[in-house]
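Escalated from tier 1: iron/sulfur cluster holo job.
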Amino acid sequence: MFNVPSMKELLRSADGELTEELRLKSNGLGLGHLPARLEPDALTTMVCGYCSTGCSLVIHMKDGQAINLSPDGRYPVNRGMACPKGWESLRVLDSSERAVVPWRRNEDGGWTAVSWEYAVLTFVSRMKALQEKYGKGSVAFLGTGQIPTEELAFLGTLAKFGMGFLHGDGNTRQCMASAVVAYKQSFGFDAPPYTYQDLEESDTLVFVGSNLCIAHPILWERVMRNPHQPRIIVVDPRRTETAQAATHHYAPQPKTDLTLLYGVAHLLLEWKAWDREFVERHTNDFGKFRVHVEAFTPAFVAQQCGMNVAEVEELARLIAEGQRVSFWWTMGVNQSHQGVLTAQALINLALMTGNIGRPGTGANSITGQCNAMGSRLFSNTASLLGGRDFTNLAHRRKVADILQIDGARIPETSGYAYDQIIDGIESGEIKGLWVIATNSAHSWIQQNRLKQAFKKLEFLVVQDMYRTSETAQLADLILPAAGWGEKDGTFINSERRIGRIRKVARAPGQALADFHIFRLLAEAWGLGPEFAAWRSPEAVFQILSRLSEGQPCDFSRLQTYDDISPLGVQWPVPAGDVEEQRRLFADGHFYHADGRARFIFGQPQAPRERLNPEFPYLLLTGRGSSAQWHTETRTRQSPILKRLYRDEAMIEISPEDARREGIAAEDWVQVSSAHGQAKFRCVITRKVKPGQVFISMHKDGVNGLIPSEFDPQSRQPSYKMCAVFIKKAH
Ligand code: SF4
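Tier 2 regenerated the structure:
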């Protein structure tokens, strides 16, 4: 029998200030039951819980309750700005769709509310039974970039070193994995080198596969504040909002960007517009790279990319003329069958032109989720804690020493990636799955296949704020979780800035912070003594601080939450002024053992997914509006946000294609691929070229069309290359 605490003990351990009686009374009533005083009547600040920009918000408190918020004017990230999602952050907490008690699936398919004791015991007994019957590798978890770093580390450490899960991955695989691999190989560590100030210091900004206006609107505002009248270059097959606002837009055929970037390098070499001194002092393998790009002549590149030679030359000329050139990319690059190489092609351009380590420069991947950077360093999924490597014995020993655990408990590999976990479920190898703060049944590719796979599981646990997500609806057990604003911790944003989040609202009903859920599960699993030091988010922050010591991401000077400046702190944290903005590689020293960056390159490959007579249109996907977030699980809870975008799923079609297919604006359009079909409402627009259509990623159905094609190194799915057939729906 496990040592499971009583309900009273569970609730007290989770939140000492709330009595059991009050919590039971509040069951199911939304947010109208805050305790007398969470915080004094005052202002407190915290980082936004949506995107990786990491804006700071001022929370306005009254009678101990968070009643409103406003953007933080002092914070060096957003300087008093916020996008619609940030403004509505508090409102989405108060929703009838919140999971307020644990739920278990009945045999008849219905749901029954159960106690935390029952839920915890069920989790432990079912997962252990699966491990005993089928082996340790028969259970896995899928995590997130949406919860604080302390919770990510707790999850990854508990599951892998405690419960013996061999496989666990996060939804960051869907957005950042290619950038991670690219940085590790090129720089020697997963290290986005920039500070946001670079957006205002560049004289030339190159955005590849990034619709910054919509996806990172506050960063776009920073571009607009650039006083240098910069050239703003957008490389994107679609005439996005960002492309429309840019000074230059180039629209290569989808997935030919790698060829285009090699063509730019070819011209920079031909024109001797490269930085010989920087390359010779600070990099390796430039000679091989030089030979590699010889074949990428302007004529060849133009033909491959569907551009003309003058466009290719103009793009290269703009880069050559810039004194402070910065290269930025997001999902258009990462979500590709050759995302790693494309990211490295951008890194190569920054290296060869010496545009790195100086103000206004850099090869800069912008992250997606609010804490994707925390996930990359500390989720214990693709990397070992602190950005280390599971396969490295010295790294495993170091982590074991810091955590004071037997080194044999640390696996020698990172385990399966997301797609391999889904394959394992399909094949019957994986029987139990724990999904935390992500909505796989909406966001993963080939949704129908994934949903069928999930139905094969013997035990599916979903731990989430909302009981209505597509994934929660498939669960056997739902663990109700607190959300942003209802718990403490830290996030790390795209420019490596560590910022605080705080508890300013009471989680509804019996929902608990993920941190406390992990504590309960650790205790019930029989791991209480091993995780005794993981008693609070701040205690875990101290552990993470020690894990960071000596790593490129070293923030060991921050030992308590009080050490984190209200302005946030970028890693690595220096001895001096921690508030000063920092970019990496100012000294030309990279993280490989020899201190040099590497030119890494390869032969462009055509995607496996091809247009054909049956599926003649190319589907692109991306963000819809700045009021929507991913699968809309949260943003659809805000009536205000819902008024800022069309509630129906829309498809953008060019006038030529609409005419050819007999489709009028506002018609319903049936979209089919080899993998699924769905209906969308037509918008006729010149944002897409003839032969291409666009659907935003937020509505259920679109990801069901996407094929299983991945970057071979990062295992990130290629969301933006799908052959489809369209016809008017009747
Ligand atoms: S830009 Fe991102 S971090 Fe800033 S308010 Fe909007 S969602 Fe939040």
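Residues 617-728 form a domain with the Barwin-like endoglucanases fold (CATH 2.40.40.20).
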